[in-house]
Write a structure and sequence with these properties.
This protein is mainly α and 158 residues long. The chain has a domain of 83 residues. Helix content is 56%, strand content 4%. It is built from 5 helices and 2 strands. Helix 2 runs antiparallel to helix 3. The chain is flat. The termini are far apart.
């Protein structure tokens, strides 16, 4: 176990911690937007605050997902580099488990038919075009879609 690889593992753990510490700003923005929505005096003000809340929450979620992935990779590497059998934190135990071998296809055309699945899948775009043009399609119909929220940047709305 080389000193440089131990130092690299420690640096990777610190980088993940720094990334998590940086998420505070996004969390504060989300909390501020939530507080604004709670204190809003009229529906328009509440809606603006709720939009800010959605955007901040999306930022927090994206950041958290990336941080979790980076933290898992860094902790796995650190356990491997240090030779530690496990890491314990409260009721939780982290160990490095051997991965399962996966199949990598090098030439799909060479795979024998008995190892190939054929999936029959409706082409919804083609069906929609036909139905909108008035052509009947057995087993399909247009539905009444529910309204959904679309969020765009101001440049896109001009």
């Amino acid at each position: 176990m080389a000193i440089s690889s131990l130092e690299d593992a420690l640096e990777a753990l610190r980088a993940v911690a720094a990334r998590a510490a940086g998420a505070d700003a996004a969390m504060r923005a989300m909390q501020a937007a939530a507080a604004d929505a709670l204190m809003a005096r009229d529906p328009e003000e509440a809606m603006r605050a709720t939009l800010r809340l959605i955007l901040a929450a999306e930022d927090v979620a994206a950041s958290a997902g990336a941080t979790v992935q980076a933290a898992r990779a860094a902790l796995c590497r650190a356990i491997e580099e240090t030779g530690a059998p496990a890491v314990v934190a409260g009721k939780h135990l982290a160990t490095v488990a051997a991965g399962k071998p996966g199949v990598r296809i090098t030439d799909p055309a060479a795979i024998p038919d008995r190892f190939v699945r054929t999936v029959r899948e409706p082409d919804k775009a083609k069906i929609a075009r036909a139905l909108k043009a008035g052509e009947p399609v057995a087993g399909a119909m247009l539905n009444n879609p529910a309204p959904h929220l679309r969020i765009q940047t101001r440049e896109a709305t001009r």
